[in-house]
Amino acid sequence: MVRPFRQSVNARRASDHLGVLLSTLATSMILAAAEGHEDAGGFHTPSLSDFFPSAIAFGDTIFQIDRIWIIRIVATIVLLTVFVVAARRAKIVPGRFQAAVEFLLDFVRVQIVEEIMGKERAKRYVPMLTTIFFTILAFNLTGVIPGLNLAATSRIGVPLLLALWVFVTYWYAGIQKHGLGGYLKANLFPPGVPWPIYFILTPIELLQILVIRPGSLMVRLVANMVAGHIMLVLCFAATQFFLIDSAGTGLMVFGALTLPAGIFVTLFEVLVGFLQAYIFALLAAVYINMSLEEEH
């Protein structure tokens, strides 16, 4: 369990650090070049308002439909269609499409769930963690699909719902196996610790199983998708500004930098979208498995 967990942490740190570096460099270069043009109706930087588009229907109600809501529906329909078609056309000798779907399914089952939990324990949780992985992956990739251009996980609702699902699952699994008292004792009072340390350790452990675990799942996913969208918009909006709006000026040379940067960030966001789905599912498996262990 330790090896893949450490690998996921190292991969997450690498992606986060590279993302921060790219964002900082791109922002500094573009804003320095475009300074003074925003008021003239030229370049406009992305903002958090991008993630809260205007209502399409039922505005200012709990049933409000907006662009990101439509994106989630489209991604869900496409995801379900892929699996329905793969299931109905399944053959003993798979074609390329079936082989690709089976490869991803086996990846989740073997590399995430069974690697953490073992084969016997994993059987119960493979459907849940597979659903989480593919939902996050599909919703993340909408951020780089033309016409959608916004990750469906870049607003808190879906990550919150998935994190609560994991939270309820590892609490239920732990209580079912150990009972409420046994589960709390195993988590809040780990053995081998001098008793005075419990005054410090126990509140921290309680905060961890109540807030930190689901919160870390949720915040990490949202933050990466928000940062990725801002980087993409920054690069491509700057490319339009430099190559089209500023045609005939000395600023056009910057377009030769922002266009390849936008293409690179797009490919990088595909990698991040897959990586965040992997990390979310992996940590979910780790948390559930920890709740089933006798000692932590």
Automatic annotation (TrEMBL):
HAMAP family attached to this UniProt entry: ATP_synth_a_bact
Family to which the UniProt record says this protein belongs: Belongs to the ATPase A chain family.
Subcellular localization: Cell membrane; Membrane
Cellular component per GO, a single term: plasma membrane
Transmembrane segments: 68-87, 125-144, 156-174, 195-215, 221-244
Record's bilayer topology term: Multi-pass membrane protein
Family matches, as NCBIfam families: ATP_synt_6_or_A
Protein name: ATP synthase subunit a
Broad class of where this protein is predominantly found: membrane
GO MF terms, alphabetically ordered: proton-transporting ATP synthase activity, rotational mechanism
Keyword Glycosyltransferase listed: no
Role of this protein: Key component of the proton channel; it plays a direct role in the translocation of protons across the membrane.
Lineage: Bacteria, Bacillati, Actinomycetota, Actinomycetes, Micrococcales
Annotated keywords: ATP synthesis, Cell membrane, CF(0), Hydrogen ion transport, Ion transport, Membrane, Transmembrane, Transmembrane helix, Transport
Keyword Transmembrane helix attached: yes
